[in-house]
Each structure stands twice: as C-alpha cells, then as structure tokens.
Amino acid sequence: MAITKQPDGRWKADVEPVKGKRFRKTFKTKAEALRFEATCRSKVALDGDWSPKPKDKRKLLELVEQWYQLHGVTLANGVQRHAILVEYAKALGNPVARTLNGSAVARLRSAQLKAGLAPKTANNRLGYLKAVYNQLHEMGVIDYRSPINLRPIKLQENPLTYLTRDQITELLAVLDSRPLSPHPAMIARICLATGARWGEAQALTPERVKGGSVLFANTKSKRVRSVPIAPGLHLDLVQHWRRHGPFTQCMNGFRKALELVSFKLPRGQASHVLRHTFASHFIMNGGNIVTLQKVLGHSSLSMTLRYAHLSPDHLSEAVRLNPLFDTLSTQGHESKEKSL
Known about the structure:
CATH topology of the largest domain: hpI Integrase, Chain A
Strand order of the largest sheet: 1-2-3
CATH superfamily of the largest domain: Intergrase catalytic core
Distance between the termini: 104 Å
Number of strands: 6
Largest sheet: 3 strands, antiparallel
Low-confidence stretches: none
Helix content: 40-55%
CATH class of the largest domain: Mainly Alpha
Radius of gyration: 30 Å
Shape: elongated
C-alpha cells in the first residue's frame, strides 16, 4: 500500500491500517494524500470501526428540500421562500451543493440585475441561499458551511415616504366613498393610529380590543404587542364590526383607492406608507424614539432610528456648534438691521 502519482498528475492514497480495512482516495497534492494516510492510521488505532466519510454529492435542490422539511415549514413565509429557492437552484443549474461558489452566484445575480431584478430582491435571494447551508450545517445534515463567499449589494438608502395631513384626509375620503367594501377604510385608520402593519390590523378581532388598547398577535417578530387607542377609535371599531362583521382580506381595495388619489407613492409602497406615516408624525410631534420602537414592535432601536431625522431638534447642535456659527450669526443680525 502506498501513495502514488497518477498519470493525470494527482496523488492516490491506498491505505490499509489493519488487515482487511483498506481506504483509497485521490488528491490534488502529495501533502493531502499523506495527511489522509496519517489520519486513517490514527483514527483506526483509536476506533477499529472508523472509516472516512464519503464525499457529499447531494445536489442543491436536495438540500433545499431538506431545509424546507426541517426548518422552512416553521417559518411564516416558508412556502414562499421555498418556491424562490427552488427557482434559484434551477437557475444555477442545480450543481452539487458543496461545489457551488460565489462566482457562479455572482454571474447569475449580474444577469438577473440586467434583466430588471431589484438589488434588494437579489440580496434577499443570496441571504436565503446562504441560510440553507448554514442552518443545515447547524443541524448536522451537512458537514460544511456555506461555500458562497459573496457579499450582498450595498444599497442606497431611500428617504422614507409618509403622507401629509392633507394627503391622509384625501385618502380616507376616497376609502370612505368606495361602497364595495367598508373594511379598507377602518383598517387604514387603525394603521394610521397605531403604526400597525396592514396584516396585523386586518387580523384584529373583537377579543383583542379591550381596556382602551388593541392587541396585535400575528406580528412579524412573533411577539404580542399592545398599543393604546383613542376612545373614539375604539367606539368606531366596535360599531364597525357590529354593522359589517369581521375584517376580510381587502388589500386590493386599498390599492385601488391609491389609484384614485391625486398623489403617487414610490414604486413598491402601498399599505406600508400608513405605518411610515404614523411613525413620522409621531416623531415630528415630539414623540420619544424609544417609545416609538415599542409601539412599532421593532426588535432593535437601529430600525426605529430611521425616523430620528424628523425630530424637531434632530442634530440642531450642528447649527450652533459649527466653526462658522459666530460669523454667520453676525451676518444674519447685520442683514436684519439693514432691512429694518
């Protein structure tokens, strides 16, 4: 038994640590073959039943299916994510999972971006794919972590869109005038008054409205969240359910109302503008950023800090503490005196 060089330049290790127990494997370098031989001899000396694991040749689609059965089914968006991953694996050519690398994913990402895919969507897909490897590794299904050494695209932060008071009045008037379904108007009011996501407000039931508060239980963070509401909204909500029954799926009614208003929202924004509107007006009216975090149910303050710039005194020290403050203040004072 020996380590021999093959005609193709690779090195073959043929090891028999004990009689009747023989291992063979081919490597790119002689050093790898020597390490394999040493490992085999030491492992068998400690455990006579030991044998090297065969190379994992499972393909990407198989790992996606295992991920879904073991973990994906526990996620709120598991079915949707599974469908995205299946299409992604097919677009990559369904390679042997452990051989996939960053360059192959980068080439596909580049082609999809040129075809019109949004950069944020591309980042989501990359994150989903890496999670398949890492979660299966944590469960012991595979013995390696994600082989994809590719970073997400750095996105340009967009300013948050929120509605002015006049726009709120116009939108609610359009919703109130639509006779097909009364629910979108009431759900929109709940979102504007509590900062709830549309799905959270739509899932409310009479049992969750008590003591001057609404209880959101189907939240994105999986945590129950209670938010106080004004007595008038509480009464309107109770009367609405008595007259019209429980809320139904009615997002389309809200989207159709947005087509009838005089203002237009940025692409990709619909009902979420109501949540942004609540948060923006909360801060502009002097609300506390930590309180806003609790009301919105953000898991970290960094998410809520996106609204901090709307505070009346946000970074106001920049005016007073900059090195030109004295000069500019004097010039402003002199200009005012001249105008008088």
